[in-house]
Amino acid sequence: MTSAKSGGRGRRIVLWRHGQTAWNLERRFQGSTDIELTGTGVAQARRAARLLAGLRPDAIIASDLRRAAATAAELAAVTGLPVSHHSELRETYAGVWQGLTHDEIIARHGEEYAAWKRGEPVRRGGGELETEVADRAAPVVLEQAGKLPEDGTLVVVSHGGTIRTTIGRLLQLESRSWEALGGLTNCCWSVLGEGARGWRLLEHNAGTLPEPVLGDDD
């Protein structure tokens, strides 16, 4: 019996996107390409880490790509927690799309891009389906969340696409509707809370710490 069912807050999962990279600024599709943070990205991570430390996380896991690992390191420095790195939390592999700007993708792969935006299962650039990303990432998140104390908090440092697909899978949404969740800004996060009927979305694309919801149906 979890504390969410017995009157406690329940476990929380904070899904935190990495800080800014040069390819973010250029609107280039990064995918699994291993790009470093910019100086601004490091500063974003440092600021966000001070806020997230206020949630008193119990564990930190991260993608092993440098932009996510460096972001996670800032929270580790503040909290003293170790970081467990997982290749399953990497961004979507997108084949020939990787390294292209948004405009180049539209020009060269317009029909494929439009099909993806309609929610059709598309291997962008010949890469992974979104459901395949969820297949590899969501089990890692759930396994690590399962190790938390009843009111514990797990911070997952990953990438925009992987975070969206993981949220969609944990909320048991149909994959064609995952795009409705919208993107995450660099170094912003979303929070899932454990309820009596499974995980639910408490915050999305947050950059500050919210006040608790009073009078909710917990």
| Oligomerization state | single chain
Mean pLDDT: 91
Strand order of the largest sheet: 3-2-4-1-5-6
Straight-line N-to-C gap: 15 Å
Give a short account of the largest sheet. Answer: 6 strands, mixed
The portion of residues assigned to helices is 25-40%
| SSE succession | HEHHEHEHHEHEE
Strand content: 15-25%
- Global geometry: globular
Report the total helices.
Answer: 7
Poorly predicted segments: 1-6, 212-218
The radius of gyration computed from the alpha-carbon positions, rounded to a whole number of angstroms, is 17 Å
Q: Structural class, from helix and strand content?
A: alpha/beta
Number of strands: 6
Short characterization:
The protein has 218 residues and is α/β, with parallel strands linked by helices.
SSE layout and pairings?
Blueprint: H1 3-6, E1 12-17, H2 22-25, H3 39-52, E2 59-63, H4 66-79, E3 83-86, H5 102-117, H6 130-145, E4 153-158, H7 160-170, E5 189-195, E6 198-206
Parallel strand pairs: 1-4, 2-3, 2-4
Antiparallel strand pairs: 1-5, 5-6
